[in-house]
Amino acid sequence: MSAREGRFKGYIMKQFVLLFVALHMPGSGIAEQLFPQPQDVIASWQPANTLLTARQANQLLDEASRLNDPGYGTARVEHTLIRRQQQGELARDLIYVKARVLQRNHQFAEAAALLSGLDDPASRLLLATVNNNLGRFDEAISACKALTGKVSHAIMLTCLFDARYQQSPDAALYEQLSAVARTTQRALNDAQQLWVNSTLAAMALDLNKPTEALQHLRDISVARAPVSSVALWAQAHLQLKQPATVLNQLGSQLESPASADDAILLLLARASVLNNSDPHWQQLASQRIDQRKWRKDWSHAAYIAEYHLYIDHHSDQARYYASKNWQQAKGLADRRLLQQTGAAGESL
Predict the structure, then answer these.
(1) C-alpha span between 72 and 80 (Å, rounded)
(2) Would you call 200 helix, strand, or coil by DSSP?
(3) Average pLDDT value for residue range 221-234
(4) Is residue 185 pLDDT above 60, yes or no?
(5) Rounded distance, CA 230 to CA 251, Å?
(6) For 21, how many CA atoms within 13 A lie in the half-sphere containing its CB?
(7) Contact by Cβ (8 Å): 71, 60
(8) How many CB atoms lie within 10 A of CB 50?
(9) Which of 31, 88, 85 lies closest to 55, judged by CA?
(10) What is the spatial distance between Cα 119 and Cα 101, in angstroms, rounded to a whole number?
(11) How is 262-318 classified by DSSP, letter by letter?
(12) Distance in angstroms between the alpha carbons of the first and the last residue of the chain
């Protein structure tokens, strides 16, 4: 698998957990994802300095994982966490929220440290994801196994197969998880099914099966699905040499291109390179990367490496930033990026 497919294996690891780990409800620790409807009154949470409950904070983080989220919700969550900490120790449900924010910001080690003291299913699932981000696959597998009897069998197995696949990619794991998904889909709610399907799509891309990846993602809405799932959808089309589809269907859905998620912006820039089309997306991507460098934002060094690998084709820079990324993130996607840039020999 190439880094362009591999990077977004962080789909489930780095962003898609924002969809699923919020699925916690009394008893099982897993509940249905909250998808606000047009009639929902989000403004009832105003003014902005009003502190959020853990449920409200989780809902805002879920919204922040989608294509056109303006980013205000994440700022409100962070404000709540700061204020609550100033008032004393965080309650357990807010510790989980803080771990989600840390994971979203690619502060994986810090997130893992917080989650190690929690034992509810949502926290165990997030801990498995963060351990995958850190390359601690045995620990991720243990966190998945700890879900046995606390969540549905399909959820536990998806967590487990994903961790095992990241540790040692194997087509047999993909086939086994596909069989599980076929027999348990009626037992899952829509959000859980999307998580399972996105896990399968990422494995399919890793195995160079983009058509199968699109089959797993056939029901997603580009405008409403988590960015991680949309990124997988776009990667599959690029792998099938269909950059115009990415530009037309994804580009048209962005309400504010300049503030688009890094993953989406890079995919659109790569599609425009492959399509020999207007360099608009490439220019926006270049500006974003310049900002990251100016801020020395090495937590997103993988995106910088991908830009140099696929957009402006500076191999030395791609290799340098892939190695920099490896210093803090050692998941399968990060390993693939090292291999693709030629930095594996000096960093692994």
Answers:
(1) 13
(2) helix
(3) 94
(4) yes
(5) 12
(6) 35
(7) no
(8) 12
(9) 31
(10) 18
(11) HHHHHHHHHHHHHHT--THHHHHHHHHHHHHHHTT-GGGHHHHHHIIIIIS--HHHH
(12) 18
